[in-house]
Amino acid sequence: MSSIRKRDNGSWRARYRDAAGKEHARHFARKVDAQRWLDEVTASVVTGQYVAPAAGKITLREYAEHWRTVQAHRPSTVEQVARHLKLHVYPTLGDRPLASILPSDLKGLVAKLSVTLAPATVSVIYRHLSAVFKAAVGDRRIASSPCVGVSVPRPRKVRVVPVETPAIHKLTAAMPERWRAAVTLAAGTGMRQGEVFGLTVDRIDFLRRRVVVDRQLVILAGREPYLGAPKTDSSDRIIPLPQVVVDALAAHLAAFPPGPDGLVFTTASGRPVRRSNWGDVWRPAVASVGLPGLVFHGLRHYYASLLIRHGESVKTVQDRLGHKSAVETLDTYSHLWPDSDDRTREAVDVALGTAAASPPGAPADSLRTAAGADPRLRRSGP
Fold first, then answer.
1. CATH code assigned at 133
2. Burial class for 248, CB neighbours closer than 10 Å (0-12, 13-18, 19+)
3. What is the pTM assigned to this prediction?
């Protein structure tokens, strides 16, 4: 319901009631402007784009904090989102009303973050912020998201260069005895750090030589470590255990019995292994063998390179690593699959090299003869 009425001072008062029954009014010097405003409101209601005038006055911080409480995020993601918003978004835009934030403001934020943060981190922060504004549009807090048209720096893709086997042997020897089996397990199964330190004895099948990966150790600020779901649904998997890993685990459990919760790897006091605990051991060890930049995830890359080197298919590598898709596996490791360049060279050399060596006047016959002799060059059709 809407109306326009001329006031005693000569201005025009346009008013309407929204779906909740709340009245909204504005005053105009001309009746035509009042009618135009009502027409715009009516059009936004019809097209489903109506936003109450005061809806966007809520601050970004207020809305984003409410948004966080209703998301079905994993605990680690909950912590990451809260940290990113608090440290990198709220100081700049947190106290601004949602409706006042423009694309130029977000471009400025991205530029500011890019000075000190890696492109991948900036991309993650912006993805969280974009989700907040998308939800605000859905909640009719704002008419459109200011994120449209804002670009973020693309993370630079770094080609994986796995360490060599001798370096793995040196690293294992350089580790304190309590942690050597953890290195062997990660290098021999490709398990992630949280999966290794969340491994319990009941997940190891020594008879069938396999390990069930269906949990990981979750460590969140202000909470005790606990066993939670693995990184993704595809991370839930069964990995065959090489004998070298079986022997290392058996020797470790004989020397360091598991604690009450069954964790295979614990600190000397029987506590779960926090990243800070592990870093104090890992960093000196990798530095001592000349690999100061190596992170625990590098052992996972080493395992993948072994599978590829020994002829395993993309599907097998995907399953062993718990990747969501074969695309993810290929994006990370395609350059490690051997012989693609050599096969290209050989195919051309066999064809053109044979033709060039044939007697003058009979290159086609010679090429057909070679194709008949070499199954790689046979044509399957007319």
1. 1.10.150.130
2. buried
3. 0.68
